[in-house]
């Protein structure tokens, strides 16, 4: 009995076997979330990059002014009346003020109090307003009504007018007292935003599912509610930081904010305003520093707002 050979047929080779074909590596799927998408958008946003660079420079200037100037306005020989109101030169870029103090040195050192007021006020306002707003929105009922009515009392007081009234009663102030006063008047805005955000998120499906699975109230609050409700608070806080710096300058300009011998841009502007026509450079440079600082934080806040707003995608 002979074997039957089929012409034209080939035995299956190992190369043609799909089982032995090299497997293609699958790229790991990117986990999409609000924060990861926002971070990716911020990295490509030139407004955010410019604002972040300016803010970083200002923070370093406030923390380590010695890196930007070798002099100190607090030295006994820092001011010389013989240099009073001298114009900017190659050696002294910003010129001298009426007391013969170097304007560049004072402008650099003045960043410290302005940044302290802005950052400290923003932290206090964000923490207090967020906690109370979270409590009111999550608990609801009587707790929400009491906190909302209490908030309306402070919300009806304008920030600058209320700050003028309180600081005039306190007398001599510094960066920390100004921060505390503005935090007392500024937290209702964050309260309302956080409360509204919690109310909008606490009835979502993922919260109901967590409740059905037996999750505790604290776990639902800090695992599900807070991460999804904090985005608008971060945006408003970033924008408001520049507003608080401008408010401190206004209070110092009126003589009821940061007081001498401390240095702030508001104090420098106040001292220079009466001699603007004779020496405009004394007013120009601290005003420019204040404007750039406020603009940098507003740019940062606008970029964060655009990145965290799903409607703008």
Descriptive tags:
313 residues; mainly alpha; 11 helices; 64% helix; 0% strand; elongated; disordered N terminus
Structural class: mainly alpha
What profile does the largest beta sheet have?
A: none
- What percent of residues adopt helix (DSSP H or I)? 55-70%
**Rounded mean pLDDT score:** 82
H-E order? HHHHHHHHHHH
How would you characterize this protein structure?
- The chain is mainly alpha-helical and 313 residues long.
- Helix content is 64%, strand content 0%.
- The chain has eleven helices and no strands.
- The chain has helices at residues 34-43, 46-63, 103-139, 141-155, 159-170, 175-201, 205-212, 217-229, 231-253, 265-273, 280-308.
- Helix 3 runs parallel beside helix 11 (280-308).
- Mean pLDDT is 82; it is low at 1-15.
In short:
The protein is built from 11 helices and no strands. With 313 residues, it is mainly α.
Write the layout of secondary structure elements.
Elements: H1 34-43, H2 46-63, H3 103-139, H4 141-155, H5 159-170, H6 175-201, H7 205-212, H8 217-229, H9 231-253, H10 265-273, H11 280-308
Helix pairs in contact: 1-11, 2-3, 2-11, 3-4, 3-6, 3-9, 3-11, 4-6, 5-6, 6-8, 6-9, 7-8, 9-10, 9-11, 10-11
